[in-house]
Amino acid sequence: MAFPEEEVPLPLVRRSARPPVLRHDVDEADDDVAAFEARLGKKKRAATGERLRPASAGALTGALGGLAAFGSVALIDPSLAARAFHGVSRLAQVPVEPTAMIIVFGIALLAGALVGAVFAKLTSRLRRWFPLLTWSLVVFPSIVVALLAVQRTYLPRAHFLAPKPLLLASLAFAVVWSLVVLLRGRGEGRRIVVIED
Predict the structure, then answer these.
(1) What gap in Å lies between CA 87 and CA 128, rounded to an integer?
(2) Distance (Å, whole) CA 117 – CA 52
(3) Which residue of 36, 63, 66, 183 pairs with 113 in a disulfide if CB–CB is 3.0 to 4.6 A?
(4) Residue 125: half-sphere exposure toward Cβ, Cα within 13 Å
């Protein structure tokens, strides 16, 4: 039995006429969204007041901190620095005086930059200098103490990790690295992001 074609009214369903979607309309809409997101990203970055991103600023201050850490070790125990120079000279088979020293300073610079970038990413929400300094003065010496404990437990005959110079190096690194807030911005805490049309 065939049913007659009739429209059954449904009280909760309403048909709406949709205009046909043309391909160039979709492209223009995508362009508008991309432009809005780009503008939003610029305004967010401008509203936070950051001169550099946390990883970049952390890498710069970390590189300086690595040099400061190695310099403090060389000041407190020159024999450790000499052993580092001679060890690199033996491993790389290069002369000690210019080449091994440059390699050791380069290693300190790169290691400091890597550690600084990682920890700057982790602490990107700390925007004031004193809390960041306190945090770094607690965390970096704690890492050194943990390394010394591992060395004493598993490598008791290895004497390449000296406690006093390493603790001093971690303190020097922490102080220099905490200046990352000066490179990132003015450290004014949280700001309200206002997006204008």
Answers:
(1) 40
(2) 12
(3) 63
(4) 1
pLDDT beyond 50 at 188 = no
- Using the predicted structure, report yes or no on whether residue 190 has a pLDDT greater than 50: no
| CB-based burial label for 110 (10 Å; 0-12, 13-18, 19+) | middle
Q: For tokens 């700001």, name the residue.
A: 191
d(CA 116, CA 122): 10
DSSP alpha helices (H): ranges in 77-195?
Answer: 78-92, 101-122, 129-154, 163-177, 180-184
CB 183 within 8 A of CB 60: yes
Distance of CA 118 to the CA centre of its chain: 4
pTM of the model: 0.66
pLDDT of res. 187: 43
Tokens of 63: 């590189």
Distance of CA 175 to CAs 26, 98, 104, 107, 109, Å?
53, 29, 21, 20, 16
Distance in angstroms (rounded) separating the CA atoms of residues 172 and 69? 5
Quick one: which of 4, 73, 56 has its CA closest to 184?
56
> Sign (positive/negative) of CA torsion 68, 161, 87, 115?
negative
